[in-house]
Write a structure and sequence with these properties.
Blueprint lengths: L1 E5 L6 H12 L3 E3 L1 H14 L6 H6 L16 H10 L3 H15 L5 E5 L2 H5 L5 E6 L2 H14 L6 H17 L12 E4 L5 H16 L1
Helix pairs in contact: 1-9, 2-4, 7-8
Bound molecules: 2'-deoxycytidine-5'-monophosphate.
2'-deoxycytidine-5'-monophosphate binds next to α2, α4 and α8.
EC number: 2.7.4.25
Enzyme class: transferase
GO molecular function: kinase activity
Length: 206
C-alpha cells in the first residue's frame, strides 16, 4: 500500500506521515529532504540555486548530506524551494522517490507531488493544509525553541513566498490530486490531526 501525503510547508504533513508510517508499519520518506539536500549542495558548491545547470549538478549530493542538521533550517528550505522549480532537478530525483514508493510492502511518502506525479496510483492520498497564520505560529514556536531569532511576521512572509513559488511553478506545482482527501490542521492539535489522518487512510483502503 502506498500512502501519499502532500501539502505546503509547516502544515503538519511530516508529523502526520511519520505517524501513519508507524501506525501502518510502513517505511517513510520525507521527499522535501532530497530537495533540501540539493539546495544545501548548491550553496556548498558556491553555485546559483536559480540556475538550472548549477542545481542539476547538485543533485549528485553525497548520501551523508541527508544527515546534516542544517537541512532543517529556514535558509535551506528557501534554497530547496528555488532549486525545486527546475524540471531537470525534479527528473533527477524522480527515480529515487519512485523506487521507494514501489518497494514491496508499500511506503509512506510526504512532499508536494507524491499523489500527482511520483505515485498517482497510491491507495490513499492526503493533502494536509492549514492557514498561513497557523503554520507560521507553529514554525515560530519551533524556531524559538531552537533559539533562532526570527519574528512571526518574517516567518509569515517567507511562508507566503514559498507557497507562491511552490504553487505557481510550471512543473509539478503544489496542488491536491483530484482524489486526495483534504485535512485542514489549522484548528487541530497534533494528536487530533494524526487521528483524522489515520481515519481517512483507513476509510480509503477499506
Ligand atoms: O517539505 P519541505 O519544506 O521540506 O520542502 C522544501 C522544498 O522542497 C519545498 O519548498 C518545495 C520542494 N519540494 C518539492 O518541490 N517537491 C517535493 N516532493 C518535496 C519538496
Amino acid at each position: 500500500m502506498i500512502i501519499a501525503v502532500d501539502g505546503p510547508t509547516a502544515s503538519g504533513k511530516g508529523t502526520i506521515a511519520k505517524a501513519l508510517a508507524a501506525h501502518f508499519g510502513l517505511p517513510h520518506l520525507d521527499t522535501g529532504l532530497l530537495y533540501r539536500a540539493v539546495g544545501r549542495q548548491v550553496f556548498l558548491d558556491g553555485g546559483d540555486p536559480d540556475d538550472g545547470g548549477d542545481a542539476l549538478a547538485a543533485t549528485s549530493f553525497p548520501d551523508s548530506l541527508l544527515d546534516d542538521p542544517q537541512l532543517r533550517s529556514e535558509e535551506v528550505g528557501g534554497l530547496a524551494s528555488r532549486v525545486s522549480i527546475h524540471p531537470a532537478v525534479r527528473q533527477a530525483l524522480y527515480e529515487r522517490q519512485r523506487s521507494f514508493a514501489t518497494q514491496e510492502g508499500g511506503a509512506v511518502l510526504d512532499g508536494r507531488d507524491i499523489g500527482t506525479v511520483i505515485a498517482p496510483e497510491a491507495e490513499a492520498k492526503l493533502f494536509v493544509t492549514a492557514s498561513v497564520e497557523a503554520r507560521a505560529q507553529r514554525r515560530f514556536l519551533e524556531m524559538r525553541e531552537r533559539g533562532a531569532g526570527v519574528t512571526l511576521l518574517e516567518i509569515q512572509d517567507d511562508l507566503r513566498r514559498r507557497d507562491e513559488r511552490d504553487s505557481k511553478r510550471a512543473v509539478a506545482p503544489l496542488v491536491p490530486a483530484a482524489d486526495a482527501m483534504i485535512i485542514d490542521t489549522s484548528a487541530l492539535g497534533r494528536d487530533e490531526a494524526i487521528a483524522a489522518a489515520i481515519e481517512a487512510v483507513t476509510q480509503a483502503i477499506s
